[in-house]
Amino acid sequence: MDTEKLSKIFKALGHPTRIKIVEYLMNIDTCVCGQIVDIFPFSQSTISQHLKQLKESGIVCGEVEGPKTYFCVDKQVLNLVKNYINKLK
Predict the structure, then answer these.
(1) CA 6/CA 73 separation, integer angstroms
(2) Which residue of 2, 11, 59, 73 has the smallest Cβ count within 10 Å?
(3) 3-87 adopts what CATH topology?
(4) In sequence order, what E strands does 1-89 have?
């Protein structure tokens, strides 16, 4: 994984709400944006901005089905980050 990609991932994980979103998605596997909005005290637009940054980094994938977008964590990307961190030891 190149440093540019790693930098985007670490930047995306640099906010507590985005970390909580990733943790939530890891626990339930996939969900609709509205479900995420329901668990945080933030507006739909704020959550959408966090999801956008997570998607741009590659950590989260979104699939549009009709009027809904389903989000899930790309576990392969997280495993690459995990492997990178393990190499730093």
Answers:
(1) 16
(2) 2
(3) Arc Repressor Mutant, subunit A (1.10.10)
(4) 31-32, 60-65, 68-73
